[in-house]
Amino acid sequence: MVRVQLGLLQALLQRLVKKGVLEGVGGRFRMRRQDGLVEGEVECRSDGFLYLRDGDRLLRLGEVGDAREGDWVRAKAFGSAPSATAEFVEVVHGPRTSWVGCLERGRKGYQLIPYRGTERESLPIASHDLLGAQVGEMVKAELVAPRARGRGVGVRVVERLGLPGDAEANFRAVAWHRRLPMTFSQAAVDEAESIPEKIGQAELTHRIDLRDRCFITIDPETARDHDDAVFVETAGPS
Predict the structure, then answer these.
(1) Is the Cβ–Cβ distance between 73 and 90 less than 8 Å?
(2) Domains in the chain and their CATH numbers?
């Protein structure tokens, strides 16, 4: 039964690809950008050329302007694997200086597996840079100087976020992956602090006052927006 359902789902996804709604990248599906562009990190390969990593595929870049290795760029893709290329459009973000992911231990020692793994497969961590984190934990790590013996750039743990599935760990991972700001602007802080703790009568004239009702919310304590609150009362004898 499950195999049949998966087959139907695959067929539906393929139809959406043909219609141009979705596109397949590395065995996965995603919404197709309306402008036809792709985004990814710039990598320098052993052949000396710069490539844009788009999911599981590499697109060889031509002229890249002032873009550098590690930059997150936007480009126009041409052709198909393995000879696909991309025309550089613009730099979206500079290279990352911190990473969020799961701590694992491989044959060469400890490593950070970045959340979603779309930019790098893994980053090495020295045992003295774990900050007490255990294998399987979600952590935030920052880049350190290139490691000895040509092993490349490593990272050191600066914060332990919890286990995969924990609300706070998931929130931090998604925010990092999407490059979302983690702090409010000073203007937003000033506006929030200017709101009085007690609601004045003038403000109440524009609202329906339901503070005498007992509302129950299904949002967890860690929620940042308690919007699923309900109040129930008897409407009649039935």
Answers:
(1) yes
(2) 14-93 (2.40.50.330), 98-177 (2.40.50)
